[in-house]
Amino acid sequence: IGWPQNKIDRFVLAKLEEKGISPAADADRRTLIRRVYFDLIGLPPSPAAVEAFIADIATTAGEAKFAAKKL
After folding, report:
1. 69 burial class (0-12, 13-18, 19+ CB within 10 angstroms)?
2. Mean pLDDT, to the nearest integer, of 41-50?
3. pLDDT mean over 9-16
């Protein structure tokens, strides 16, 4: 999935470029699940949760479904 994807992304990217800053690279799935867990419940994911998330190959739909379950 490329970046930027929407108007907010384009706005942020323009501001970064004005300051000579480039955006960070996309995070891998292991990093994404850790971020979601820490942001939503304040604890790291279990090893089983990490492996299940990594194994779910439906990228965007899988990530949205996973985050919705945690809410």
Report:
1. exposed
2. 93
3. 94
Helix boundaries (H) for 3-71: 7-18, 29-41, 47-55, 59-70
Both structure tokens of 7: 């108007």
C-alpha–C-alpha distance, residues 1 and 49, integer Å: 23
pLDDT at 62 over 70: no
pTM over 0.70: no
Q: At CB < 8 A and 24+ separation, what contacts does 18-22 make? A: none
Choose among 19, 13, 49, 14: nearest CA to 32. Answer: 49
What's the CA gap between 4 and 53, in Å, rounded?
A: 24
